[in-house]
Amino acid sequence: MDRFEQFEIWATRPDSASRWEMVAAFADFEVASAVASRRGRRVRLVHSIYEEGKLVKQEVLAEVGDTSQRA
């Protein structure tokens, strides 16, 4: 079985604060965490596990940046 895991950085889309998109993925947690903490807008650090090329588990590890809702 082909299985791999990665740490992904997800950010809100500029046109919609409720829609998220993956902007980067890293094999190493420390690298992903450092990159996520340097981004200017709201991001999520996500741990994802894939089997046979399909997502089987995803866990949000942290949400950083501007997390307040603006009117």
Describe the secondary structure blueprint for this structure.
Blueprint: E1 3-13, E2 16-26, H1 29-38, E3 43-51, E4 54-64
Antiparallel strand pairs: 1-2, 1-3, 3-4
For the record, the count of structural domains works out to 1
Content of β-strand: over 45%
**In terms of per-residue confidence, which ranges show pLDDT below 50 for 5 or more consecutive residues?**
none
Q: Can you give the helix content as a percent range?
A: 10-25%
Shape: globular
Number of helices: 1
Rg over alpha carbons:
13 Å
> Which structural class do the helices and strands define?
mainly beta
- SSE string: EEHEE
Described by strand count, sense and barrel closure, the largest sheet is: 4 strands, antiparallel
Compute the number of strand runs. Answer: 4
The mean pLDDT is 87
Q: Taking strands numbered 1, 2, ... along the chain, how are they ordered across the largest sheet?
A: 2-1-3-4
* First and last CA, distance: 48 Å
In short:
The chain has 71 residues and is mainly beta. Helices cover 14% and strands 59% of the residues.
Could you characterize the architecture of this molecule?
This protein has one domain. Helix content is 14%, strand content 59%. The chain contains one helix and four strands. A four-stranded antiparallel β-sheet has the order 2-1-3-4, covered by helices on one side. A hairpin with a 2-residue loop joins strand 1 and strand 2. It is globular and about 40 Å long.
Notable characteristics:
globular, 4-stranded antiparallel beta sheet, 4 strands, mainly beta, 71 residues
